[in-house]
């Protein structure tokens, strides 16, 4: 009897927590795991060495460019002596959640990128070259 009550209570808490409005939880987690080490938790970057995400709004407004930037990285910059490594491990669903998280967190965009769009962007990224 006690174990059934405990099971119901834990199940209810799980359902309540899972239903909370945070559609880009995975995107936030991916940002923390793959991006925050350089761009920092709040996106402020590191002075002139690593750009703050709020100063790169043009790239954030253009999901295709952002997907390609994350996917292919940036080459070594002799001025900053930094490079942005490519991230080929993030799959299309994860990338979709990451792009949507970045858009809502840093430019307050209501635009939602769908997985099918990111799949097409991955194909387009094969010939993508970064433009300053």
Reported by name, the CATH topology is Cytochrome Bc1 Complex, Chain D, domain 2
How many helix segments? 7
The order of strands across the largest sheet is: 1-2
Structural class: mainly alpha
What would you note in describing this structure?
With 132 residues, the protein is mainly α. It has one domain (22-125): Cytochrome c-like domain (Cytochrome Bc1 Complex, Chain D, domain 2, Orthogonal Bundle). Helix content is 55%, strand content 5%. The protein has helices spanning 2-18, 25-34, 36-39, 57-61, 63-72, 92-106, 115-125; strands at 74-77, 82-84.
List keywords for this structure.
132 residues; Cytochrome Bc1 Complex, Chain D, domain 2; two-stranded antiparallel ribbon; 5% strand; globular; mainly alpha
């Amino acid at each position: 009897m006690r174990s059934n009550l405990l099971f119901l209570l834990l199940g209810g808490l799980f359902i309540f927590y899972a239903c909370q409005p945070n559609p880009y939880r995975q995107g936030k987690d991916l940002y923390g795991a793959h991006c925050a080490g350089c761009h920092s938790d709040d996106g402020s970057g590191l002075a002139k060495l690593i750009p703050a995400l709020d100063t790169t709004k043009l790239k954030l407004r253009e999901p295709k460019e952002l997907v390609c930037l994350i996917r292919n990285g940036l080459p070594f910059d002799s001025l900053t002596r930094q490079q942005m490594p490519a991230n080929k491990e993030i799959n299309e669903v994860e990338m979709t959640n990451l792009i949507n998280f970045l858009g809502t967190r840093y430019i307050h965009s209501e635009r939602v990128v769908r997985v099918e769009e990111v799949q097409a962007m991955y194909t387009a990224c094969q010939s993508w070259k970064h433009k300053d």
